[in-house]
Amino acid sequence: MQEKGKPGIRDVAEAAGVSLSSVSRYLNNGYVSEEKREKIRRAIEETGYTAERQVVMSHGRKTGLIGVIVPKLRSETIAGVVDGIQSVLGEKGYQMLLACTDSDEAKEVSYIGLFGSYPVDGIILSGTVLTKMHRIAMKKTKIPIVTVGQHFENTWCVYHDDVEAGRLLTKDLIDAGCRKPAMLAVRQDDISAGADRLKGYREAISAAGLKFDPDYVREVPFSTEGGYEAAGGLMVDHPDIDGFFCATDSIAIGAMQKLQELGYSIPRDVKVCGVGHSRLSRVVSPKLTTAHLFYGRSGAEAARMLISLIEGKIPSPGQIKLPVELVKGQTTASDQEGR
Q: Whole-angstrom Cα distance, residue 128 to residue 131?
């Protein structure tokens, strides 16, 4: 609720002749055109609007603030998620408090506790794992929490069908002629990028009548360096490998670099694919086959789910699984296509 007689975000939007979302982006240092930025600045001065809010939690009053916890800021993936969150929050008149954990699970738990005691209406958590400490902190927190990017049982969450991503990409390798496809995986306690994508890989191997060999799977860091080192090591140990399904685009690009340095032709000798449909995957040569994940949509869906909870509504469904799409590049061209 807004204090009687005190200008709010709607007053600023009306005075500036812009949308609520534009004012919200301005207040959260998001992108706003210079023309709109100047209009909003003048409107704030004219109306006397202040972002300070008086919070009276005991009376059930809302603050209009949402805590968003992310693992890192310099990430194309996270940027897409945050843009999706911001687009919905802005439309609904909410402002975002952003916390970065540097992929530190202890910091995630700490921020859940901090936001739980701070005057925010709800929390969106974009994390990598859900540990016992996470669950304890979430249980203690009396405000709604939605997780995005991971599938956690008994939580409100929005996630992608990462099993299908693994299955689609591995099947694409096999359909292109691979009979010894390896996988560069990531930590298995990361359910989405780790366990689920590996599960999809195994399902595609089995469906094709091929034998799964754990020696053809190597766990690597989320980096081009991780893909670079692991691809070289696997080719030394198993020179019959004819394809790599990589858990992320960055790992795949690192693998491609190493394979090319070793003299392998992609896709003639070895085929490669990743996950994420990153900007780099579209310009690397040869163009990478990958899976498109709807990061912006996931953030928007998480924000809508959280707002429903704040308003006392029960979202249906309480867990949203988003689809993935195969984006065919040149790195998995079949032998016939390569001729």
A: 10
C-alpha span between 212 and 253 (Å, rounded): 24
Residue partners of 148: CB distance under 8 A and separation at least 6: 81, 85, 124, 125, 126, 157, 158, 159, 298, 299, 301, 302
Buried b (16+ CB within 10 A) or exposed e, 201-226: bbbbbeeeeeeeeeebbbebebebeb
Contact in structure between 244 and 315 (CB atoms under 8 Å):
no
Distance CA 210, CA 69 (A): 41
Over residues 220-274, the pLDDT tens digits come to 998 999 999 999 999 999 999 999 999 999 999 999 999 999 999 999 999 999 9
Mean pLDDT of 68-81: 89
Pairing between strand 243-246 and 217-219? unpaired
Question: Strand, helix or coil at 321?
Answer: strand
> What is the spatial distance between Cα 238 and Cα 251, in angstroms, rounded to a whole number?
19
* Residue 199, Cβ density class (10 Å: 0-12 exposed, 13-18 middle, ≥19 buried): middle
Q: What is the per-residue pLDDT for 220? A: 96
pLDDT recorded at residue 57: 38
Per the structure block, which two tokens stand in for 7? 């200008």
Closest CA to 49 of 70, 69, 27, 30: 27
Q: Is the pLDDT of residue 191 over 60?
A: yes
Give the span between the Cα atoms of 171 and 167, in whole angstroms.
6
Kindly calculate the radius of gyration of the chain based on its CA atoms and give it in whole angstroms.
23
**Residue 76: pLDDT over 60:** yes
Distances (CA, A) of 87 to 65, 98, 243, 291, 322: 14, 14, 39, 24, 18
| Token couple for 109 | 């738990």
User: For 161, left (φ over 0), alpha (ψ -120 to 50), or beta?
Assistant: beta
